[in-house]
Design a protein that fits this description.
Its main location: membrane. By secondary structure, the protein is mostly beta strands. The protein has 5 helices and 18 strands.
Length: 339
């Protein structure tokens, strides 16, 4: 079974039973109205292939991720009959888990889908040989995000006039997050978040979310589960608040492997909606979809891409580890007073 997620919507194909080389030939259409331009710029399409189970949870085989804007600016606004590499982002299985051929089309107002001729279809799709994908040589990388400190974070908890901030990194259909630091608006974090990345990837946007920890509801067979592996019965509708979000470039992060520094240690400043203000407009501000009007905190961080040699015996793990702070790496600071 294939599950497609575009922004906050998801759809699935039919289930093909007991087949390692399935052929779906299905079309899934997503329609969105009243989108801001930044929605498309930040939007992603996640393709996930599952081993479907009737009684137990579906098991992820592998996934791949695209930036919608990168597809929109391709010829004919499409990625046509492209083989993609499926990687297990859960970290349970190393290496390539399979290949999937997809066509993805992104159309805006006034756009029309290009219709390929029969000759083009036969030439490009290899329609009669679906079980023989072309050779794709995966190239292993890791993305390291160092979170050193945050200061003056926005207040998200009305009762305590504080927040429980944590950081979540999202890239190449994978996510990883730190544990929250409770009731502190300024604190040393000193964590390194490591994500596995298998080139080639068609997405370039690394999303770094800054959130306030709250009870998150996951319902399955009437079991309510708290994040961080705690179990309790709670009311419906409580979600993690977004304190801010920043987008970084994977290509620039990889530049740290050479002479140029990708994203060295630096402060980023978050802007969004005023503290304790909610609603659709505030949500768009906090997610960076529209320009924020309120300072919501600063975070000292660093991003770096590192290439892993194919013959390396080092096990690549998706993990959060302690990071040792080097005082000499601290950026120069100047204090200003506005009168």
């Amino acid at each position: 079974m294939v599950e497609i997620r575009v922004m906050d919507a998801k759809k699935t194909t039919s289930i093909i039973k007991e087949n390692l080389n399935p052929l779906w030939d299905e079309r899934l259409t997503f329609e969105f109205r009243n989108l801001e331009p930044e929605d498309l710029n930040q939007g992603k399409c996640k393709v996930m292939v599952y081993d479907a189970n009737m009684l137990r949870r579906n098991v992820l085989i592998g996934s791949f991720e695209f930036d919608l804007v990168s597809i929109y600016y391709k010829k004919n606004h499409e990625l046509f009959c492209q083989w993609v590499t499926l990687i297990d982002v859960t970290g349970q299985h190393e290496g390539v888990q399979g290949f999937l051929k997809v066509t993805i089309v992104v159309l805006g107002p006034g756009d029309e889908q290009y219709i390929h001729s029969e000759d083009e279809m036969l030439e490009l799709t290899d329609l009669f040989k679906p079980l023989m994908p072309p050779s794709i040589d995966p190239d292993p990388w890791i993305l390291k995000t160092y979170v050193w400190r945050y200061e003056h974070m926005a207040i998200a908890d009305r009762t305590s006039s504080s927040s429980d901030p944590y950081v979540e990194v999202e890239f190449a259909a994978a996510k990883i997050a730190t544990s929250p630091i409770k009731k502190q608006l300024s604190a040393d974090v000193r964590k390194c978040l490591t994500l596995k990345v298998m080139e080639p990837v068609l997405g370039d946007q690394i999303k770094v979310w800054f959130k306030d920890w709250d009870i998150v509801i996951e319902r399955k067979k009437k079991l309510v589960t708290l994040k961080w592996n705690t179990h309790i019965k709670i009311k419906k509708g409580v979600q993690d608040d977004v304190l801010g979000m920043k987008v970084f470039s994977w290509e620039k992060a990889k530049a740290s492997e050479g002479k140029e520094e990708g994203y060295p240690v630096h402060w980023i400043h978050l802007y969004g909606a005023p503290d304790l203000v909610s609603g659709a407009l505030a949500d768009k501000m906090n997610k960076g979809i529209i320009e924020g009007c309120w300072y919501r905190g600063s975070v000292l961080l660093q991003l770096a891409g590192k290439h892993i040699q194919q013959d390396s015996k080092t096990e690549i793990r998706q993990e959060v580890t302690e990071a040792v702070w080097d005082e000499t790496a601290s950026p120069a600071m100047e204090r200003w007073i506005l009168q």
